[in-house]
Every structure is written in C-alpha cells, then in structure tokens.
Amino acid sequence: MVEDVICRPHILDRFANFKDLFLGFLKAGDLTFVDRFVMVCRSVWFKRNAVRLKQVSLPYDQIFSDAAARLHEFHLAADPTVMTASIPSSNSWSPPQTPFYKANFDGALFQDINKAGIGVVIRDSAGLVIGALSEIISLPPSVIEVEALACQIAIIFARELGLQEVVFEGDSETLIKSLNSESTSLSQFGHLVDDSRAAALELQSYFFSHIACVDLMRAVWLDFSKAKQVEICAP
User: Fold this and answer.
1) Where in the chain is the domain with CATH 3.30.420.10?
2) Residues 49-66: what's their mean pLDDT?
3) How far is CA 232 from the centre of its chain?
4) pTM over 0.85
5) In Å, how far from its chain's centre is CA 177?
6) Beta pairing partners, 89
7) How many CA atoms lie within 13 A of 60 on its CB side?
8) Angle at CA 63, nearest 5°, toward 181 and 194?
9) Topology of the domain covering 90-233
C-alpha cells in the first residue's frame, strides 16, 4: 500500500498534540508528506462532519486514495509548465466535424449503495445520437478513477460500433491533461490512462477534449431517451 510506504518511517514518532504533530512534519523537511497529511486531514474532517450530520460520505478505507487523487489534481492545475491552451476545451457542447464522431463520457457516484455509474453517448457530425451506454460498477477509490474508467469504456464502445474517427470528451481537466500528455502518467490512476491510450491506438484517428461539467451532463445524462441504450450491470 502506498500509505504504508509513506507513513512507515514515522510510525514510532510521538507528539504532544495535533499542533506538535504538524510542526514535526514540517521540521522533517518532507513537503510531499506534509501535503498528503494536510489533504488527508481535510478529508477526515469532511468525513467527521458528514457522519455527524448523517450525510453520505466516502468509506474510511478510501479516504487516503481520494485525498491523494485530489492532491495530484491540485498540483496539475497549479503547475505553470502545464499549458491549458494545448488541451482542446469547450464551454459548450458542439457536434464534431465530419468525418468524426463525438463520444461524451461521464461518471456519477452512488455512495449510499457503494456503486458508481458510467454514461457514454456517441453522436455524429449532425449531432444525432448513434449509440449510448450506461453501466453500474463497484465504487472506485477516487472520483477521477470513475472518470478514467468512463473514458476507457467510451473507447471500447466506439470500437465495438465500428467507428474509426472519434473525439472523446469529458469534464475532468486533470484526466484530459494526462491522456494528452506524451509522458507516462505517474498518478494513482495512471494505469487507467495507459489502458485508454492503448485502446485508442486501434482507431484510425482520435483525440481527447475537455468540456464544462454542466454541458457534459446535458450531453450525456439528459439524452439517453433519444438513444438506443445498452444496459450493462456489473456482477
């Protein structure tokens, strides 16, 4: 476990109180560990409030992985070397140019049943829905892994429909950055990024695009009634 590797060197440390604990981490000089510690504390605080108010929240065993994913997303957004202009992005949905098709994908969390939902809608250059898919899966460790799985399923679905030129569009800027990057992803969801890239290589032409969350919800979840929907339930 990643958390075991990070925390093991500090397991014998003793601190008088929380302030002493935090100052001890700062004095150790490991800023990466400090960042992770702060994010985990934030997640634990949110979990405590959710339990107190009897609201739905992440299971305890997913707090660390979710905090790590959020920290990774923050670092990507704050990195000045990452040029957002290089990422195809749109504030509103638009149909693809001929001969491309557009596959919009999205994920949703159902923490009360410990499940996640994935939706994919594929349209042609006229904006007509040619296929749609929804799937229920076990709840992954983090939100971004749901998005990464949705992208992977969108690619496989497009291939099954026999499409060769496809734009894959989602609302996670972090995921789209990782998919468009030429370097290997070292993030927690990196293996899912690698799998999606490998699957997309079987297409003749493709690229990954970012879209605002509100417009993606309109593009995916509100249009299932217009499509021939394929239901796939996880075992």
Assistant:
1) 90-233
2) 74
3) 20
4) no
5) 11
6) 210
7) 2
8) 25
9) Nucleotidyltransferase; domain 5 (3.30.420)
